[in-house]
Amino acid sequence: TTPKYVKVKDEATGIEIVLPGACSQKDFNSARKYKAKDSDVFVCSYPKTGTTWLLTITWLIVHHGEEIPKNYTDSIPTLEFDGCENIEAIDDGEFPRIIKTHFPYKLVPKNLKAKYLYITRNPKDAFVSYYFHVRGFNSVYHWKNPDLSNLYELYIKGEVTSGLFFDHLKNWYAHRNDPNVLFLLYEDVKQDPRNEVLKIAKFLGDEYEKKLKMDDGKILEIILERSSFSHMKGMSAWHTTYRPENEPFIRKGVIGDWKNHLSTEQADGLDRALMEHGKESGISKLWDK
Ligand code: A3P
């Protein structure tokens, strides 16, 4: 069996993408109508690469360390699920709107003054995380007999939500040096969260960077604590509609969990695909360190 997906088409560009089973062409059309505001901050990614983590860090920086709300989807919309009207209805007054999206570069609403954060993660860990995600999110994917090999075959062809990992990454990577794009690696945030949080704050604006450093860096310490794996794992905001018997959304949070789940052939397959797609784009060097 395969997970439940929907394929939607963007009339303007002809781009077709696969979305989770709970989405519809109507939601997608509405999302495409959204016009980015100057103050918008977009948190962009391919699924399972650290989106929620980056979202949390971004929220904490923008809100000076204040915890993400329990009903976070009311304050942080997802472009492809919430659509234009719901996003426009969110008005945080003095704070910029933070919008999550897994859209490919071409479909994200552009505004030269808006900010775009993109996070990526090595594809082997991203795939393993995706497997647990699809398996656990029964209310969306209705996957009757979860099987990693079966999902791998779809993943390597890009027949999964948000299309092919490598295409998504390549298209964003090409814009990594745009002044309003910040390109991040999950592995860097894991290895040096302090440095990455400061980098993100600087990108969001001098006022945020300054605030973080005030009071001997008290807010920075709060942000680091509140975006740590152990803290996030305990937060009820992420306990959504997962199958109770399975791993939760904030699952393991490590580098290299693929070693526990992928066969040599599967790991090699993803490495080869990365090399292939990296020849011209340069993405194959991202995890060389
Ligand atoms: P694992 O399944 O490998 O644990 P996304 O938010 O894009 O869906 O990504 C989810 C992945 O990010 C999950 O990976 C999750 O555990 C991990 N993650 C979330 N918060 C994290 C944190 N504070 N530290 C490390 N990893 C985190």
From TrEMBL:
Molecular-function GO terms, alphabetical: sulfotransferase activity
Family: Belongs to the sulfotransferase 1 family.
Any one GO cellular component localisation term in the record: cytoplasm
Lineage of source species: Eukaryota, Metazoa, Chordata, Tunicata, Ascidiacea
Keywords: Transferase
Organism: Ciona intestinalis
Descriptive protein name: Sulfotransferase
Sulfotransferase domain span: 38-279
Family annotation (Pfam families): Sulfotransfer_1
